[in-house]
Amino acid sequence: MVRLNPRILLNNSLMSLEYTEIPVVDWTLAERDKVLFLTELRNAMINVGFLYLSNHPIPMDLVDKVIDLTPKFFDLPQEVKNSIDMSKSPHFHGYLRVGGEANDGHPDTREQFNFGGDRTCRFEEGKPEYLKLQGSALWPEDTVLPGYRDTMLDYYQRLEDMSWEFMAYVSEALGLQPHELCSLFDPDRSKLQPRCKVFRYPACPPGPSGRGSGIAAHYDNSLLTYLLQVSDQHVLQVQNHSGDWVSVPPIHGTFVINLGKALEKATRGVLTATIHQVISPPVGARYSIGFFSSLAMHIRIAEVKFDFPQEVWDMKKARDERTGKDSEKEFEFAPKDHQLAAEIVLDEKIRTHPLATLRYYPNLFDQYFPNGLPTHLLAH
Ligand SMILES: O=C(O)CCC(=O)C(=O)O
Ligand SMILES: [Fe+2]
């Protein structure tokens, strides 16, 4: 996740006004009128970067089961949640209490449970450390929360399938062959483990400095994020190009899809990652689940290039001009964009999870934390 300097947000407010609501894209339109579907999708992806997906292929009875189980997971006794704490996973799966991520500046006010589909860990002595990123997740015993693991894994598997199909549609919407953007994933699915994160944002009544922050303004690092808003709280907001916060209220039966940095880089700015935030709910906890589709581990994003047709470049140019960006400027990569995607993910995980690093990556721990554990973690 990329935290933002508040000044960047301020400067944006000088720009011209953009969208004020989030478009809804109907998955089934692809079968009825493919051309219209792709046109709507292209508009949502290039000009907004946030959309609701309605009539999606995930069965609603499964979604309802997931919705029912989500608060039940967080209602488990604290010892049960602690027994699957992320500090016990070399793959950075598991539970994080409120404030459990060592983010600087803006502590998030949320609890979370991270998991991925069943994968074999391919790490062996002498092989790159990033191979430890993948492996089986930590789950509560089935006796304490019957059906949780199976339901969540079923949900995950179906979302993973949908994320491939959706990416193929995005590829076509941008004038490419369906498989082209899917080449950002690993064709061997056993080598790709997108992360799924279940969140609980506790209520935080407005204080003297305004409303609390569930998660501060940020971009996602994913290619695309598929978000299920589990509870009916109007606390998710996206920032449009003019700097205004646009509410993304839950719509039952939809996913919210948002564009992450990896897809912005892969498309060299044809698509742009969207800034969003969650305000703490004033009363009652808020729950959501994010599925973060991710780049194949072997990809170096700065080496990826797609041959978009002129009309797509023209739409990008028109958007940039409308939003006050230099439309002629070449996309600029950061030095780390030449590294393997897996190395970048590991770097981010190590920085944000010192306890798991101490246990499972001792060599990297000394390198990243030469002064030992940050003081707030010393009690562990
Ligand atoms: O919980 C939400 O609605 C959004 C979460 C989010 O933006 C994130 O975890 O990156
Ligand atoms: Fe996000």
Automatic annotation (TrEMBL):
- Per the record, a Pfam family? 2OG-FeII_Oxy
One molecular function GO term is: metal ion binding
Which superkingdom, per the lineage? Eukaryota
Q: Which UniProt keywords apply?
A: Iron, Metal-binding, Oxidoreductase
What region holds the Fe2OG dioxygenase domain? 190-295
Please give the family membership noted in the entry. Belongs to the iron/ascorbate-dependent oxidoreductase family.
Q: What is the protein's name according to its record?
A: Clavaminate synthase-like protein
| Species | Mycena sanguinolenta
